[in-house]
Specification:
The chain has 18 helices and 14 strands. The protein is elongated, with a radius of gyration of 24 Å. One of its GO terms (biological process) is methylation.
Length: about 425
């Protein structure tokens, strides 16, 4: 067990991989490592090149037997490489969710997805520490993937994550992990070297310890397969590509900060890359859920504006009477819209609104004002109004005044006396 506390370990990993997300990887390095751990050239050419950065130790999508319509969860999704490959297999009806602790990684993955026209709820990236409760509904996932990430969790996090994986998997759901496991108990000079920990070696545990964690979470008869990969490929590729930090490697400038006993060590002496398979029993109880995310808005930026001005139903009614062509009213409700709506309002469901910001602006740029509303205008309405306000600010675009209907449709209906009338 390392001498560092859990908070320090988690924050160190977050900072290190946030740095990778900002700087990216040398393309030659990323391609060499990716192909060495099982990705084909065709696979790499089918996804955004910025999504693979040489951070994995395997290719879980090859053996996950993903099927059209399935829900897939990737733990520690990085730039999105395994999510994008999974999305190709599960099709438009499936849902692929990637979780990552790094704000910068999530931002990078979302931008990669945007370039390929992949948006929530089909493809989602969410910021989340794997040491916390996952923002995923119970019994909602067909297959959980992870690629060289579990070893980065402190021991308490390792204990926790397998219980969470068991919770979110549907009965009969599959677990396919690629991870670094130690061949024997690691000595203190490796275990307590933070550079080795961040590089996926220092936090590695042995096969029997890994299996005990799976068993205690409810998984039975798990299978471990040694990939027999040469872990030193990371060091050789990093030296050639000047990669600052990767799974199982440290770039030259970082390696100098490690102890003299670990800088030149043979990684294969201490650890190996494994693929781990397991399955949640089919007789597990619980109601199956079709939606993976507990909160749909987790898949979108959280920094939406809070300075959008409210407008009362009386004020909106006056605007519509005086100059209806100058104001556009936007209903962002979903299925609950069946109870009535403001006459003449445009329907843009909140769950997909962020995906359509550019198109939305193209349609309403000439309006004097756009007024957003939902049921009570305390959640979806303000969120969508804020996203549009942020869009205008971020792109330095002159646009309509953005407003929120105070009290939402419920107040409008009470004060108008006719749910469909303006």
């Amino acid at each position: 067990m390392t001498k560092y506390d859990d908070t320090f370990l988690i924050e160190s990993v977050k900072q290190a991989y946030s740095s990778v997300a900002k700087t990216g990887s040398a393309p030659e390095y990323a391609a060499e490592v990716a192909e060495s751990v099982g990705y084909t050239r065709d696979q790499l050419e089918s996804i955004p090149k910025e999504s693979h950065m040489g951070l994995g130790c395997g290719n879980p999508t090859v053996t996950a037997t993903l099927k059209p319509g399935e829900n897939v969860l990737d733990l520690g999704s990085g730039g999105g490489i395994d999510i994008f490959l999974a999305a190709l297999k599960i099709g438009a009806q499936g849902k692929a969710v990637g979780l990552d602790i790094s704000t910068d990684m999530v931002k990078r993955a979302r931008e990669n997805a945007r370039k390929r026209g992949l948006f929530p709820p089909h493809v989602s990236f969410v910021e989340c520490s794997l040491a916390d409760t996952l923002p995923i509904n119970s019994n909602s996932i067909d297959c959980v993937l992870s690629n060289c990430v579990i070893n980065l969790l402190p021991q308490s996090g390792k204990n926790h994550i397998f219980k969470e994986i068991y919770r979110v998997l549907k009965p009969g759901g599959r677990l396919v992990l690629d991870d670094i496991l130690s061949k024997e108990e690691l000595p203190a000079h490796i275990r307590d070297d933070m550079k080795q920990y961040i590089s996926c070696i220092g936090g590695a545990i042995q096969v029997h310890e890994y299996n005990e964690l799976l068993d205690s979470a409810g998984f039975k008869e798990s299978m471990f397969v040694d990939s027999e990969a040469d872990l030193n490929i990371y060091l050789m590729a990093a030296n050639a590509g000047s990669m600052p930090i990767t799974c199982c490697s440290l770039g030259p400038e970082k390696a100098q900060m490690s102890s003299s006993r670990t800088v030149d060590m043979d990684l294969n002496q201490w650890a190996a890359s494994y693929q781990i398979y397991s399955r949640k029993p089919n007789d597990s109880s619980g109601i199956v859920c079709s939606e993976p995310l507990e909160r749909w808005w987790d898949a979108f930026p959280v920094g939406w504006s809070t300075d959008v001005a409210p407008i009362s139903p009386t004020e909106l009614a006056a605007m519509l009477r005086n100059d209806p062509a100058d104001v556009s009213v936007i209903d962002v409700r979903g299925e609950d819209r069946d109870g009535g709506h403001i006459n003449g309002s445009f329907h843009f469901p909140a769950q997909t609104f962020h995906n359509q910001l550019a198109e939305f602006h193209g349609q309403f740029a000439a309006a004097g004002a756009v007024v957003f509303y939902c049921g009570g205008s305390v959640g979806r309405g303000p969120r969508c109004a804020g996203w549009y306000q942020d869009f205008l600010h971020a792109n330095a675009i002159p646009g309509p005044t953005v407003l929120i209907l105070n009290g939402g449709f419920r107040r409008w209906a009470e004060e108008s006396g006719d749910m469909d009338a303006t």
